[in-house]
Design goal:
The chain is α/β, with parallel strands linked by helices. The chain has one domain: Ribonuclease Z/Hydroxyacylglutathione hydrolase-like (Metallo-beta-lactamase, Chain A), CATH 3.60.15.10. 34% of the residues lie in helices and 22% in strands. It has nine helices and 14 strands. Strand 11, helix 7 and strand 12 form a beta-alpha-beta unit. It is globular and about 90 Å long. The structure holds zinc ion (ZN).
C-alpha cells in the first residue's frame, strides 16, 4: 500500500515536471525569429517578406502589388496595426504598391521606413515609362505624416533591431542607367548572430559586379532572396560568393516553370537556368512564392 502511494507520487511529480518542461520549451519556441515569404495573390509576380524578431518587432520588406495588399494587411492587423521597420528595395510597383496603399489609406502606424531612391528627375530621364509611379511614391514619402519616418541609409550603415544586425550592403546606383530601376535595389543583410539572410531586391548584372567588387567579404549568407524573381537578375558569380543553403524565390508558378502558357520552358524567362545554378551550388532548400505564404523559423 505504502509502495503504491510512493509510486503514484513519483508518477505525479514526473508528470508535473514534464508539463512544466513542455511549457517552457513552447515559450522558448515562440521566441524564435520568423521569416515569412508572402505569396502572390494575383498572377503577377511580386515580392514581400516579413521578419518577426524575438520580441515581436515587425519588419517588412517590400510587400507586393495592389492585389497582395489584403494578405499583408492580415499580418499587420494581427500585429496591432503597427509596423516597426519597413524596407523598400526599389521603386517598382510589384514591390511597393501594397506599401503605398497601406501608408496612404490605413491607420497603420509605421515607425521607420528605409528607402534609397534617386530624385524624380533621374527616374524621368532614365525610366520614363515608370516615372509616373516613381513620382507618386516620392510624393507620398514626402507627405507630412510620413516624411519624419523616412530614412535614407548610407552604404554599410548598420541598424540594430532587437538583437539583430541589419547592414546595408547596397544602395541606389545612379551611375547605372541600363535596367535602371532594378539596378537601384537596396541590398540588405539581416544577421541574427546565428543566421544571415541576404535580400537582393531586383539587383541586376551591373550592381552584382559592384557588390562583388566592394562587398566581397560580406556576401556569404545562409539564406538568399533570389534577385528579380529568380531570373535575369543577379549573376551566377554573385550567387557563388553568397553560397547560400536556402533560396527564397519570389516567383509565381508561370515564372518558376518558365511557362508562357504552352507548358514548362515555353517562355522567354531564365528561371530554369538560375534554378540549375543554385542546384550546382549545392542549395538544399528552396521556398517558392507560388506555394503560398511560408513561415520559416530561424535561429
Ligand atoms: Zn520585381
Amino acid at each position: 500500500m505504502k509502495n503504491k502511494k510512493k509510486i503514484l507520487g513519483i508518477i505525479l511529480s514526473l508528470t508535473i515536471l514534464l508539463i512544466i518542461s513542455v511549457s517552457i520549451y513552447n515559450i522558448k519556441e515562440n521566441k524564435k525569429i520568423e521569416l515569412i515569404q508572402l505569396s502572390n495573390h494575383t498572377t503577377t509576380q511580386m515580392m514581400g517578406y516579413i521578419i518577426k524578431t524575438k520580441n515581436d518587432k515587425m519588419i517588412i520588406i517590400d510587400g507586393g502589388i495592389l492585389g497582395d495588399t489584403q494578405n499583408l494587411m492580415n499580418y499587420i492587423e494581427k500585429h496591432n496595426n503597427k509596423v516597426d521597420y519597413w524596407f523598400l528595395t526599389h521603386n517598382h510597383n510589384d514591390h511597393v504598391t501594397a506599401f503605398t496603399e497601406i501608408a496612404k489609406n490605413s491607420n497603420v502606424m509605421i515607425d521607420n521606413i528605409y528607402v534609397s531612391l534617386n530624385e524624380k528627375e533621374w527616374y524621368e530621364e532614365h525610366e520614363r515609362g515608370r516615372a509616373e509611379f516613381s513620382n507618386y511614391l516620392i510624393d507620398l514619402l514626402n507627405e507630412e505624416k510620413i516624411k519624419p519616418k523616412v530614412k535614407t541609409p548610407a552604404l554599410n550603415e548598420k541598424i540594430q533591431i532587437d538583437g539583430m544586425e541589419v547592414e546595408i550592403l547596397g544602395i541606389r546606383n545612379p551611375e547605372i542607367t541600363q535596367n535602371p530601376g532594378n539596378e537601384q535595389s537596396m541590398v540588405i543583410k539581416f544577421n541574427t548572430g546565428k543566421t544571415s539572410i541576404l535580400i537582393l531586391g531586383d539587383t541586376g548584372e551591373k550592381s552584382s559586379e559592384k557588390l562583388l567588387k566592394n562587398q566581397k567579404e560580406k556576401l556569404k549568407s545562409d539564406i538568399v532572396q533570389m534577385s528579380h524573381h529568380g531570373q535575369s537578375g543577379a549573376t551566377k558569380e554573385l550567387y557563388k560568393e553568397i553560397s547560400p543553403k536556402i533560396c527564397l524565390w519570389p516567383s509565381p508558378d508561370w515564372l518558376w516553370n518558365n511557362d508562357s502558357g504552352a507548358g514548362e520552358n515555353s517562355g522567354p524567362w531564365k528561371t530554369l537556368e538560375t534554378r540549375k545554378w543554385m542546384e550546382e551550388l549545392g542549395v538544399t532548400k528552396n521556398y517558392i512564392e507560388k506555394d503560398g505564404d511560408i513561415t520559416i523559423k530561424i535561429k
